[in-house]
Amino acid sequence: MEVDPRHCDEATVQAMAELGVTRVSFGVQDFDERVQRAINRVQSFETTLATLERVRGAGMTRINVDLVYGLPSQTLETLARTLDLALALAPDRFAVFGYAHVPWMKPHQRLIPSETLPDATARSAMAALVSEKIVAGGYVRVGLDHYARPGDKLAQALAARRLQRNFQGYVADDSPWVVGMGASAISSLPAGFSQNVADPAEYMKAMERGGFATARGIAVSPEDRLRGDIISQLMCLYTADIGETCKKHDAESDAFLSTIDGLAPLIRDGLVSIDGDRLAVTDRGRPLVRFVCAAFDRYCTGIEGRHSRGI
Question: In sequence order, which residues have a C-beta less than 8 Å from that of residue 266 and are 6 or more positions away?
């Protein structure tokens, strides 16, 4: 269960324990007060630590901490202090995401002046700092944005090449399907994807009626499954066996690769390499793996203009 440490009192913790919750993810974002005020989420380290100890005391010892870089007013110095404090919490896992400034999708972000956001060079340096400090703290980097202790199931899944990724990030779960519960939750089902209504009040009304709260759904085709399989391999392992994957999906690899128009520029720029039917993301290309994956997504019209900048 994901919790906001500011709103997780003793009664909430006990209810979580009674429900059988075993892993708790703490939303932190950043511990610098100036940054917190810029994103309207003031949350002290002491509040976070007290809630974490309360959760651990109730027997829920598997702890994740979520952090964000690229936030307004954030600098390398403030981020370094946040990382030191976060490491002091000693969670099992970290998830560290780059802030996505999408005011056309999230109107409340219009309140954030764009000039307060770190530029692309600063974001790149922040991403490097995050990896450097957390790995030095004894964690294994898992894919693009997760870190786990060496004995954690996530790190073990990576070593065994069983790592998967879903809407919640990287997971060690072998199940190919995910059922999302709650407002705006997305489910991955055999026929495709579905999403619940985003408004909590509407979601609760649907629950009270005893029906589904589904707002929309997208069916997937055999080609979608093929492309999704390749994208998953690239996101989790930075490599994909195009030949074997096409064979599994009853497709011909040469014909399939001929449809990937964006592949040649990626090879030319040194972001990917091909050896036979095996495609590998280079060390240079790993921070840009989303751009590599976008080449295989036939629904993607370019991620630079619609989502977060760069890394």
Answer: 272, 285, 291, 292, 295
